[in-house]
Amino acid sequence: MRVLILGAGGREHALAWKLSRSSNVNEVIVSPGNPGMEITPKVSTEKIDWKEKELFLKNVITLKPDYVVIGPEDPLANGVADWLRGSDIPVVGPSYGAAQLEASKIFAKNFMDKYEIPTAKFKTTTKAEEGYKYLDTLDMKEGIVVKADALAGGKGVVVTHDLSKAKSTVYDFLDNQDCSISTKEILFEEMLHGKELSAFALCDGSNYVTLGYACDYKRIFDNDLGPNTGGMGGYLPQGWPSEKVKKKIDEVFKKTIDGMKSEGTPFNGFLFVGLMVLEDEINVIEYNVRMGDPETQILMPTLNVDLNEYLYKAAKGDLGQSQDISSKLKSCVHIVLTSDGYPSIDGTPLKLNNTIEYPENFNDPTDGNIHLFFAGVNKNKNNELVNSGGRVMGISAVGETTEEAKELAYTQIKNFNFKGMHYRQDIAKI
Ligand code: AMP
Ligand code: GLY
Q1: Which residue puts its alpha carbon closest to atom 1 of ligand 1?
Q2: 287-307 pLDDT, tens per residue?
């Protein structure tokens, strides 16, 4: 089989690597991909622009994939999965309508309300004045969360105890023309407490398989200091969450899939539920309609199944009975290596084009307990890999325990280097 994956990052490299391990897969094409991915046997890259429908479909049809997997949220929120389905090309990825679960936070909150899915209490407004008045009624000791109703790459959320910060966020999101986030409507949410968890299922519109659970680290520096990033690493927890919590998460998957079906927008694709867990209680913080990055790089090396079989069935709407295929026996720790200057909140340029040194035996990372997944890389004129983005690459280490995986990851990371390379020293430690 030939599989086409849309996307360019570590998530797509990890999916491509896992699919390449299937004896039924001859070829995985990642578009646009990155040149680092080509270290993986059977994996190649091809630049296809999805932004123009007719040209995109023409290019995909020429490649003749057996099915397509859509990695990032942007093409999903623009209806690319519908275009493919409309051309009879099987696809793992929700329709435009189903992608609203991630694209519109207000859609997601109303949906959760309607289908009795546990989530923080909320209120919406389109007018800044109304927002300020509402904030004045609150006890800021409890804190407040202000969210823009737009895809904002993690920048559209402010969690604060500070009234003036909350008010200035309302102004920024609704009325400030200079703010990079612009939305017509905002949400206020009650502040939740507990430990965050990402839970993943693969859905075919009616049924699902549980892919697993992971914890990620969003801040750039150790001890959760500094600005938020696209993700600095994470791990697969063992012995947590409890079986009771897992049952509650299953309920969320089921209610979501049943609810989307009865709304007339069946959910086909990866469902990523971001949760706050406090003892045995859960609340959904957000939905994403795709796999997580770096959670994919954590789950793929530990999944003990032929992923191709499940993805193909999901694309065809034929997963069969819901089941749990998550890894119970192993753990995995993933550490992201970033460029100097990342995440560049103030817009200062990243220090790029530095040659990446990595051991030769990582050229074929198909076996063993260490895996290398590339993201922001390019090739220079000497054909060497150089850093070309903020999140450059990541190392996944598998162990019988999280402790073992962490030891392995931090020992191996010493073999990698590029000028200005940064990584967190405390992944899976706090
Ligand atoms: P979101 O984009 O909705 O996932 O929010 C980004 C991050 O903000 C989450 O990963 C949480 O760390 C935090 N967050 C969002 N909503 C809440 C909430 N209601 N209570 C506490 N933290 C939250
Ligand atoms: N790791 C969080 C995300 O992919 O959105």
Answers
A1: 286
A2: 999 999 999 999 999 999 999
